[in-house]
Amino acid sequence: MLDESCIINRLEQYEDVSMELLAKRQLQKRTDHKYLARVSQLESILERLGDDYRLLRANGRPIAQYKSLYFDTKDLLCYHDHYRGRRPRFKVRIRQYLDRNKSVLEVKRKTNDGKTVKVSSPKDYDQWTLQNDDITFVESKSNMKVAQLHRSLWVNFQRITLVGVKTKERLTIDLNLKLNNEDNKSVFFQIAIIELKQEDSCHWTPAMRAMRSCFVRPGKVSKYCLGVTNLYDGVRMNRFMPMLRAVSKANV
Question: Structure pTM?
Answer without folding.
Answer: 0.93
